[in-house]
Amino acid sequence: MDSISGKLSFTIERLHVDTAYAPFQEDYQLMLGIVATFRISLNHKWIFEEPEFPVVEFAVQLASWFPDGLRANTAFIYTSMESEIREFLWFRSSEGDWKIGSDFAPLSPDTVVSEKDLESAVADFQACLLNDIPSELRTPVSRLLRDSV
What we know:
Layout: E1 2-5, E2 8-17, H1 27-33, E3 34-42, E4 45-54, H2 55-65, H3 68-71, E5 76-78, E6 89-94, E7 97-101, E8 112-114, H4 115-137, H5 142-147
Antiparallel strand pairs: 1-2, 2-3, 3-4, 5-6, 6-7, 7-8
Helix pairs in contact: 1-2, 2-4
């Protein structure tokens, strides 16, 4: 699954259920239990990669930020319930563009994208998850994403 937007894309591969969290009886189990190899690429070059990444937890946090936080130039900070790292992945407004960074895996200081590219990548990623998780894993996630807005 690719979220392609100009220069920026979010990609997931090997989407699967982490059996430590199944069966999904609570929302947190669903958020942490659907995982994949997650990559962010800029100009077709990987700038971030994390195997066993909780894509639903990330998408829920994105949904609570997007699009209003983006338009208001409010930073997005992803923090996982499973990690002690406070700013696992972040997007921060910078002089009309957006910096992408991580306290987990430091990125190049010139990791900057346009607002349009970030908006497109986030929207494409959310749409892909809403399609791929129910079709590949037979697990609905739309309620979690809708309720987080």
